[in-house]
Specification:
Organism: Myxococcus landrumensis
Keywords: Metal-binding, Zinc, Zinc-finger
Strand order of the largest sheet: 9-5-6-7-20-19-18-14
Number of helices: 11
InterPro entries: Znf_SWIM
Helix content: 25-40%
Shape: globular
Protein name: SWIM zinc finger family protein
Largest sheet: 8 strands, antiparallel
Structural class: alpha+beta
Number of strands: 26
Strand content: 25-35%
């Protein structure tokens, strides 16, 4: 399994300890830019829902919802969840082993009492022993939380289990990049009350082998499942992925469903009062977010965006909500360029997207940003076509090009905003834009955006 290595050095192990005031979950730091051992220390005000939310996240990370036949004999090891301490927010996020399911726990300031010493992001490992411990946390049991760069150690009474951090696999890097692009384009589909959310989750098909697509149709203040597609319906497959929400449903204040206009993803945001649990699903269990190409156009950014990136990155400041209008004013730029720039920073692991807040937030994934483009061979191929002079504008049609490839010449079209529309290659005939643009469309996009500002070096 290909992975990018990142080494942490811990001054002490993390631990879940019992003291006179209750329990304390301590995730120790590795660096963090502060002499203090933690960049957050506090007390959880809703210990039971928070513990169950973290347990649900760990269930997602520890599960493969799809196992290709060639992998039946070797299940890949689960990667670590990521925890971010930002201004006023604590966020835990991670992917399933197949990268088809993304989960995030957002703790708002009303979910805890505590002090922020510093800000940062790290990987932590929650597996079976930690899940078992979280499941036993009671509603009335005080639970303290400290967050930092760490492994996780569970200590209860005489027992002690040390969990290990694993290298961050490439599918996680690509998945984290791709899922932000999806979340940013999702639209609210339905909002269910606590009662309707519980009824919806308990009424889901229970057969794990059911791989047929299902469709959610609005019905009054709720939704109903249908086996046939219809206008305005929300498409779902792999319904077993929603099972991780069941234990949280009794604590829910409501459930908001978000749909992709292109039918390629969906998200379920459960309101737990002072915290939220987000579950994002790819359109098929066999199509992990890491295998998509939605970020390719963002990586092939316009020169004006490229010039903006360093200034935009300097304005992140670990904010939990990045206001596009405010950033545009500070940087004397347009909101469109700032939004596009934030998408590029998302691809580089520097920001995530909160569907409920409809805004990006700052977090820095621990990997080498210089290697991001190496994860996108289509973009590298597009740049090679451009450098080889393989493009010729079609004088008979605005936004159209002829692109000479290895074995054929293809006709491609862009819209007025230089976004990809169509290509005559076999890859596009099979996938369209569902998995991002082909290399020929990317080459045309690069050519067109460079033509907008020919003086840019």
């Amino acid at each position: 399994m290909t992975a990018l290595s990142h080494t942490y050095q811990y001054g002490a192990p993390s631990e879940l300890v019992t003291d006179g005031r209750g329990q304390a979950l301590r995730l120790m730091t590795s660096g963090g830019g502060t002499p203090r051992p933690f960049f957050f220390e506090g007390r959880l005000l809703q210990p039971r829902p928070t513990a169950l939310a973290l347990r649900a996240l760990s269930r997602v990370v520890g599960t493969r919802f799809h196992i290709p036949p060639a992998m039946l004999h070797r299940i890949l090891m689960a990667a670590d969840p990521v925890v971010t301490c930002g201004r006023g927010m604590l966020r835990f996020e991670g992917f399933s082993g197949c990268a088809s399911t993304y989960a995030r726990v957002d703790l708002t300031p009303s979910a805890y009492e505590g002090d922020v010493a510093s800000f940062g992001t790290t990987n932590v490992d929650f597996n079976a022993p930690m899940r078992a411990a979280l499941a036993t946390v009671r509603t009335d049991e005080p639970l303290a939380l400290s967050v930092g760069h760490a492994e996780v150690v569970l200590e209860r009474g005489e027992s002690r289990v040390v969990e290990r951090k694993v290298p961050l696999p490439l599918r996680w890097l690509k998945g984290f990049a791709e899922v932000q692009a999806y979340l940013a384009r999702l639209e609210p589909f339905a909002e269910l009350s606590a009662t309707e959310a519980l009824r919806f989750l308990r009424g889901l098909p229970r057969a794990r082998t059911d791989k047929r697509p299902h469709f959610l149709v609005p019905q009054g203040r709720s939704v109903r499942l249908s086996a046939t597609p219809s206008a305005g319906a929300m498409r779902l497959t792999g319904m077993e992925r929603l099972r991780v929400l069941e234990d949280l449903a009794p604590f829910a204040k409501g459930l908001v469903l978000h749909a992709d206009p292109r039918g390629q993803a969906s998200a379920f945001v459960m309101d737990l009062g002072s915290q939220r649990f987000t579950l994002a699903l790819s359109s098929e269990v066999w199509r992990g977010f890491s295998g998509e190409g939605q970020t390719l156009t963002a990586l092939a950014q316009r020169p004006a965006v490229d010039q903006l990136l360093s200034s935009l990155r300097a304005e992140l400041h670990w904010e939990s909500v990045l206001e596009t209008a405010s950033l545009a004013g500070k940087l004397s730029s347009s909101e469109d360029l700032v939004w596009h720039g934030l998408q590029v920073l998302g691809v580089r692991g520097l920001v995530g997207f909160d569907s409920q807040a409809r805004a990006f937030f700052h977090r820095e994934l621990p990997f080498d940003f210089e290697q991001v483009e190496a994860l996108a061979p289509r973009l590298a191929d597009a740049r090679a076509l451009l450098e080889a002079g393989a493009l010729e504008a079609d004088a008979t049609a605005p936004g159209a090009y002829w692109v000479r490839s290895t074995s054929a010449t293809y006709h491609v079209r862009l819209d007025e905003g230089c976004s990809p529309v169509s290509c005559g290659c076999t890859w596009f005939a099979k996938h369209g834009l569902e998995r991002g643009p082909c290399k020929h469309l990317l080459a045309a996009h690069l050519h067109a955006t460079l033509a907008e500002d020919p003086d840019t070096p």
